[in-house]
Amino acid sequence: QVQLVESGGGLVQAGDSLRLSCAASGRSGRSFSEYTMGWFRRAPGKEREFVAAIAWSSGTTDYTESVKDRLTISRDNAKNTVDLQMNSLKPEDTAVYYCAASRSAYRLGIISRDPLLFSSWGQGTQVTVSS
User: Fold this and answer.
1) What is the predicted pLDDT for the residue at 65?
2) Residue 108 and residue 19: Cα distance in Å, rounded?
3) Residue 42: how many CB atoms within 10 A of its CB?
4) pLDDT in tens, 85-101
5) Could you give the CA distance from residue 80 to residue 42 in angstroms, rounded to a whole number?
6) What angle do CA 114, 116, 118 make, to 5 degrees?
7) What DSSP assignment string belongs to 5-68?
């Protein structure tokens, strides 16, 4: 079972930057090359939404339209971490951010935005952007 632990959230002002990190473990030393990793967020009173995803093996990425050009997802093979660099933050980025892992998406050969395909989830990290 894959375990995911997020870190890096906090309270910032609009226009600031934050870097979220997701530490992945539970593969008994094996790589995460057969996984797609994703970041999702849930804002107060709203549904959980897809933010970004990366195929671990190829590095192919996907972003929701509202964060393109401001957020960058990346992975570090040596550290087994997946980061989300967040620049030019806006108040509407305020949410709990969750890291998730999907082996199903890899097997389907897709970069999925569907949270139902992600079987492992972290506990979340709060990002609050003040105006």
Assistant:
1) 95
2) 29
3) 14
4) 999 999 999 999 999 99
5) 24
6) 85
7) EEE--EEEETT--EEEEEEEE-STT---TT-EEEEEEE-TTS-EEEEEEEETTT--EEE-GGGT
List pLDDT tens digits, range 32-75: 889 999 999 999 999 999 999 999 999 999 999 999 999 999 99
Q: What is the rounded end-to-end Cα distance, in angstroms, of the chain?
A: 40
Q: Say which residue the tokens 């030019």 belong to.
A: 88
CA distances from 81 to 7, 28, 42, 89, 129 (A): 11, 15, 21, 22, 24
Distance CA 94, CA 68 (A): 16
